[in-house]
Design brief:
The strands form two sheets. The chain has a five-stranded mixed sheet with strand order 2-1-10-5-6. Strands 3, 4, 7, 8 and 9 form a five-stranded antiparallel sheet that branches. By secondary structure, the protein is mainly β. The two termini are about 25 Å apart. The protein has three helices and ten strands.
Length: about 170
Amino acid sequence: MLSAGPTPRVSTSEWEFTITTEAGQAHRWSWSDLMNLTNEEITTDIHCVTKWSKLGTTWRGVPLDTFFEDIDTAADYALAYSYGGYTTNLPLDDLLEHRAWITWEFDGEPLAPEHGGPARLLVPHLYFWKSAKWVRGIRLSFEEDLGFWETVGYHEYGDPWREQRYQGD
């Protein structure tokens, strides 16, 4: 799998996930908190901008809807950020209504660090660079801030069915 930099090594004892609202209010979950949330198995196809797809992949994770249950926001956009500094932008609507998860397992095995472990974002209806490896948090805002790949020419949305690989697609 491609990465924007070196593979971060994050222990589950140090891992934390934070959602920060547009007003600056931070909501935090530890690894233990994540493991105590109701999780589910997700079977879905994934699509890479480099023109490959993998059909019927199986993941275990918690829908982002669960994290947003007690968050009051009027934001339209989210910027996911990762250990190691990677970022990617998404409309908030693409993270809700059972369209995105925080996952820690792939095909019945813990996610390897090279594939985003201990936890990664999974947004399977968009190109896979939107499924941020080593996810650390999400910042909400009223305006869209471009993420790492988007600032170097990748499409700001990344719909595989419209082949939105690069700006202008």
